[in-house]
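Collaborator request, handled under Task 6.
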Amino acid sequence: GCTSTFFEPTIDYCVFKMPRFTFEKFPRAKWVLGTSMKAVGEAMSIGRNFKEALQKGLRSLETGHYGLGADGRLVIDKDLSEKDKIELIKERLRLPNADRIFFVREALKCNMSIDQIYELSKIDRWFIYNIKEIVELENEIRRKKLTPSLLKKAKKFGFSDYQIAYLKGEDEAKIRSFRKKKKKIINDYKLVDTCAGEFEAKHPYFYSTYGQEDESRSTKKKKVVILGGGPNRIGQGIEFDYCCCHASYALSEIGYESIIINSNPETVSTDYDTSDRLYFEPLTLEDVLNVIDKEKPYGVIVQLGGQTPLNIAKGLEKAGVNILGTTPENIDIAEDRDRFKKMLDKLNLIQPANDTATNLKQAKRIAKRIGYPVIVRPSYVLGGRAMEIVYDDKSLQKYMKEAVVASPKHPVLIDKFLEDAIEVDVDMIADGKRQVIGGIMEHIEEAGVHSGDSAMVLPPYSLNEEIIGRLRRQTYRIARELEVKGLMNVQYAIKDGKIYVLEVNPRASRTIPFVSKAIGVPLAKLATKVMVGYNLEELGFTKEVLPKYTCVKESVFPFTRFPGVDIILGPEMKSTGEVMGIDSDFGRAYVKSQIAAGQILPTEGSVFISVKDKDKPRVIPVARKLQDMGFKLLATKGTAESLSKGNINVKPVHKLHEGRPHVVDMIKSDEIHLIINTPSGKGPKEDEIKIRTSAILHKIPCITTIPGALASVNGIESLRKKRLEVKSLQDYHKGKR
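C-alpha cells returned to the collaborator:
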C-alpha cells in the first residue's frame, strides 16, 4: 500500500487453518497422522469466534461436510453395534487422523464427558467445551421451533443454511428465504485491517459474520466476481488458481473491479493485492450468494476454478446471477452423460460404448453388453475420484459399493476401456463465433492413466498430420455446438485410426498454465476478456500457435509420504503437482521434465526389467537400445527368457520368493540404477509392489509403462549425446512462429 510503517494487526477474529487430506486415493496408506506431512492442501476460515470459524473451515474443505456434522455425512457406519461404535470412537480419538474432530462430536453425542475425551485425545478441554456447545445447539435446533433468536444464535455458531435445513427436514432455499426475507437475519462483513486502524487500509480483505457492524466497501463501479477453487487437493490444485489470478489481472486492464471469493491461503489469488476485494469464504452456494447480494456484480466467472464453482453454477443461475461465458445449461450438456451422448450423435462423433447404472444388477447387465474391461466412475467428479478399470463381475460388485459413497446423487458411468489407445488433450478458446486451438497435447502414458497423471507432449510427437487435422475439426464442431465463450478442454482416445471423444470440459482445464507457457499466450487472461464481451480478433489471437520446440508436462507424486503405497498409475488421479521441460527436441525436453520432477535418469549402470507377458515383445526395442548404450541388463526369469530370444544379453535375478539375493536386496545395495516394471494381471502382486515401493524408498527411477520406458530411453540417448543447455522461456517464444 502507501504506508511506510508496519502495524501490529488488530486480532478481533478467530482464524482456522484446516488441512485437506486425500487418503481415499491411497487405500494402502496408514491413516494415522504423524511427523511426516500427509495433507495435500489446506483451507482457511475466519469468524468472530471459535465455533463460527470452525464450522466455516470444515465446509471450506469441500469434503461433503457443511460444518461439524448435522449434514447427513456419516463418519460411522450406521449398522455398527453400540459396543463397536464406542470402540471405534475411542480408537479414532486416541490416534490422530483426518476425521478426528468429527469423532469428538460423535463422542459427545454418545454422552462421553469432556474429561474422557481429553484423556483419550489430549485435545485441550477448552476446544472440546466449544465443540460441545455446537453439539448442544444442534440438538436444540432439531428439537425446538426455529425462532428468530434461535436462528440468529445458530448463524453466530457457524451453522450453514444447509445444516439448519437438514435438522428441520426442510429445503435449503426455504431456510435462506425465511432467514433473509422474513426475519431479516443477514450476515455482515468485517474487514481484516492491515493497518490496525491507524490509517485506512488500502487492501483489506473480508470475512462474514452475524450481528456485527458491516464494514464491507462495495462500490457502484462495474465489477465481476471470480470464484476460486478452494483448497488444493488431488484433482484440483494451483493450476486453477493461476487462471483466477490472470482473470483478476485481465479485469483490471479493462477497467472492471475484480472480486475474488476463495478459501485457500496457499494461493496467489488470496494475496490481499491480487484483486480489488477479496472475500475469505467457503465456496458453497450460501456463502457465494451472500457476497453477491452485498456486491451486486455485473456477472460471475465460474469456469476458472475447476469443478468447485461448476457445482454451484446452476444454483447461482437459478438465484438470478449472471454467469459469464459458457452458460450453465451448455456446461451441463457436457457433464450429463445422456445429454452429452445425444450431442455427439448429432455431430456424428463417436465415443467408447457406454451407459449409466444406478444399481449393481443394472451395472452387470451393461458391462456384459459392452464387454470387459470397462472403466467405471461416478458422474460429476474431478480428478478421477473413485474411477477404476474393472475386469469382471466380482470386481464390479466390489466397486459399486464404494462408488455410491463417492457421488451419492448421481449414477455410475460405465465405459468400454480402449486398451493400448493413444490419449490426447486439446485446449481451446472461443468467443461464441471464432474458435482457436490453444494446444494439442499427446499423452506419453497409454490409455487408462488419468490425464492429470500422464506426461504430455506439445506439439504431439507421434501423431500424423491427418489425425491432428481431424482432432482440430472435431474440437471446432464441439465448441460451436456448445456455444463456448471462454475456455474448453476435450480429451480424445485414438485407436486403430478412429478418434473417440472421451470427455468435454467447457471450462479451464488443469493444462491451461502449461499450454499458456508453452505457446507464450495468456489463455486465461484472454478468456476472461472474452467472457465480458471482447472477441478474439480484438484481442489479437486468431490463429493456433505451433511451437518449433518441444514442451513436456510431467506430474509430481506424493508417494514418498505414503510408505508401502503402490506407485502404479491408473484412472484415479494421484499426482499433487506438475513440472515442465522445454527444449529443441523431445528427448531433451523429456529429460528436463524428469529432472524437475525429481527422477534422475542414469546414463550408465544396471537396469532391472520385469514386465507382464503382453509387454514382453514391446520391451525388446527398449532393452536393445539400453544394451547398445552399454547398460547391464537384469531381469526376472520370464522376462529374461523373452529378451534372450531377442538376442539381448541379460542376467536373470531372483524374485522375492525364489531365494536370495533377490531383486529387492540388489535395490538396497545400490546395484540397480533404473527399473522398468509393468504390473501383471488384474491386480498388482505383492512382490511387484515391494519392488516398486523399494525403488521409491531408495530413490531409484521406476518406470511402469512401456511408452514411459521408450520416452526415458529416448531421453537418456539425447543426454549421452549432448549436455543439457539453459535457455529462457522468452527466447523460446521469440521464435515460436
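The cover message to the collaborator said: "The mean pLDDT is 90. The first strand starts at residue 14 and ends at 20. Please let us know whether this matches your experimental observations."
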